[in-house]
Amino acid sequence: MQMNPSFYLVRYSLRHIWNSATGILSPDLFEVDSEGHIRTMEVLDREQINAYTLEIVACDSASLNPLCAELNVTVTVLDENDNKPEWHYPHARDKEVNITSDLPPGRIVARILAMDLDAGENGRVVYSLIDPHRRTVFQVRFNLFIDHIYE
Which segments constitute the Cadherin domain (predicted)? Predict the structure, then answer.
């Protein structure tokens, strides 16, 4: 029995797209071409949605009774360093910390806090002091406290 070559042709379609944040999306975010390549149609941002599940259907080309198979493909959006840290303390409107002149060395002066929306190493915030006069009066410890230390 000779096989019809048209049975070897496979048509691909994208039935649904789910995301981890809101549920079903419009099919305009991804497409599947005639060769089965999945492409993004828009720029994806991990901080908004970090994963998508695409329900893809492959059908043979039989004219009377085509057979189809479904497959769920998970697309995970990797992080890139696209966000700068945002200060939570001190606030942009309130950048001043007042201390008394007789505060002993080693006392905590303030706790600073900045957050970065990126994940992993891209979201790790490193603190440092910029001292234009090269005097060591304060230091930043890893636990986010600014310490008052006189030399």
Answer: 10-87
Residue pair 80/120 in contact (Cβ under 8 Å)? The answer is: no
Q: What does each C-alpha distance from 131 to 100, 108, 134, 135 come to in angstroms?
A: 21, 18, 5, 7
Does the predicted model carry a pTM greater than 0.90?
no
Backbone angles phi, psi at 12, to 5 degrees: -110, 145
Asked whether the beta carbons of 10 and 36 are under 8 A apart, the reply is: yes
Give yes or no for a contact between 105 and 148, defined as CB atoms under 8 angstroms apart: yes
d(CA 73, CA 32): 12
* CA angle centred on 35, ends 9 and 71, rounded to 5°: 85
Show me where the domains of the chain are located. 5-76, 86-148
Q: What DSSP string describes 92-118?
A: TTB------TTPPTTEEEEE-EEE--S
Paired residues of 119 in beta bridges: none
The DSSP 8-state label assigned to residue 5 in this structure reads G
pLDDT, one tens digit per residue, over 62-98 is 889 999 999 999 999 999 999 999 988 877 677 788 8
Output the CATH code of domain 5-76: 2.60.40.60
